[in-house]
Specification:
single chain; disordered C terminus
Length: 308
Amino acid sequence: MAAADELAFHEFEEATSLLAETPDAVTTSRSDQLIPQGHVAVAVGLGAEDEVEESDKTALLQEEKQQPGFWTFDYYQSFFDVDTSQVLDRIKGSLLPRPGHNFVQHHLRNRPDLYGPFWICATLAFVLAITGNLTLVLAQSRDPSIHYSPQFHKVTVAGITIYCYAGLVPLALWGFLRWRKGIRERMGPHTYLETVCAYGYSLFVFIPTVVLWLIPVPWLQWLFGALALALSASGLVFTLWPVVREDTRLVASVLLSAVVLLHALLAMGCKFYFFQPLPPEHVAPPSQVIPLTPNTLLTATSPRTMVT
């Protein structure tokens, strides 16, 4: 250790004496000798040029890539590019609405999909038709006088009703909000696909509700329906409120009331049509008992006279 200290001190003393003898000399460090300044400047310049060239190439590739037309399959393929975790997260968001929690902003994040709404509507349509037929089967098991025949037309009715509601109502709502945007400049409505996505996922809560409607207790059926309607409609109201609150109070109240009313009409229509009481033609008429009088018995048992 002492020898090392003496050597280090000796070098420092020698360097000091050299600087004293030649005060105009320029000192350089070992790092400067290993990496010349000119070389560093050239390396940095080349890196900047490479970044500029890469950004130019990326911009050119983006310009060359054309957006496919709406009549092509590639245009709609992006709307089904969603994984299972995203679909489950959006379903959970539709089942647990809360104030201040916008479904479009917190769950869609500018990436609406049609995969979830399409299969939710298809599942709801089939479940409605199947449970509607099972209701008649269970009623026949309790009352043998009921004559049941499969009602396959309910599948078509359910499919047309659900898909028209999930497609046409968001279209009318989106068009109205676009019209109001021209009047109220601060309003920024959601896109049509975001509105369809919000409506599609809001219908998921009706799938387990329809299954629970198989319980043959009327007041319990209405309770389940009211809970499902409250969850589904509140999610839509919380999603639309940030958009319509910039409008007048009258327009906002009427619009949100119309959204809730249409949702209630859909739920009540499905309840009355698919779970309605049996029509008269499906119930066997009661057997009529004809009282037998002594004259009737005498006529029925008397032999016919032979004419000769």
